[in-house]
Description:
- It contains 8 helices and 10 strands.
- It is an alpha/beta fold.
- The chain has one domain: Rossmann fold.
- Bound molecules: adenosine-5'-triphosphate.
- Adenosine-5'-triphosphate binds at residues 11, 16, 34, 36-42.
Amino acid sequence: xxxxxxxxxxxxxxxxxxxxxxxxxxxxxxxxxxxxxxxxxxxxxxxxxxxxxxxxxxxxxxxxxxxxxxxxxxxxxxxxxxxxxxxxxxxxxxxxxxxxxxxxxxxxxxxxxxxxxxxxxxxxxxxxxxxxxxxxxxxxxxxxxxxxxxxxxxxxxxxxxxxxxxxxxxxxxxxxxxxxxxxxxxxxxxxxxxxxxxxxxxxxxxxxxxxxxxxxxxxxxxxxxxxxx
Length: 229
Ligand SMILES: Nc1ncnc2c1ncn2[C@@H]1O[C@H](COP(=O)(O)OP(=O)(O)OP(=O)(O)O)[C@@H](O)[C@H]1O
């Protein structure tokens, strides 16, 4: 389980996170939802130890965050960070050299799942294809948890559907996923838990299934209540 307890963050004098607390379980998809600037990316970076936070505590299966976190957690940022001159297959080799937990058979499977051409150059890729390469690289690491920052942002409906479909395959398996997204429609049926952020705080943390069963509401219904209020 990833446990985030009472973390706060300021950029200069601006408070971005205010005692944020929630958990994300292994084997579940937890969706972090908030309007632009709500602090979603900052939370993912804090989990990876990429940005310092004040106070609070972050634990991965009971352990504090250390530089070895990369063996346990794969972070897929909101854009592909590989050098643009590289071909996809060179990016794969780069990952294999850099990460001891690179899983080549899974990478090959993801290449064909997303119908990627390994000879394509990174800087020639469309936005949707770059998003798929980004996911292919991040999901090919043997990590218990995967953090995905806006994997659907700015890409067409067919690419979004293809990306969403990976969540129902063994390529995600029983990993714990934290995903930030605005494109909730594409994955609403796959989400286990929702964490709604508002004003730097967790406004509500709920099980999508419980809200469906007990309140007869969809995740989008709850979002409308919160953000249109
Ligand atoms: N390095 C930084 N320096 C100063 N302010 C920052 C920095 N990074 C983020 N911020 C500010 O912190 C706030 C939260 O940013 P963050 O990127 O975490 O939000 P987000 O919820 O992921 O937003 P979006 O949905 O637009 O991606 C924003 O107001 C942003 O401008």
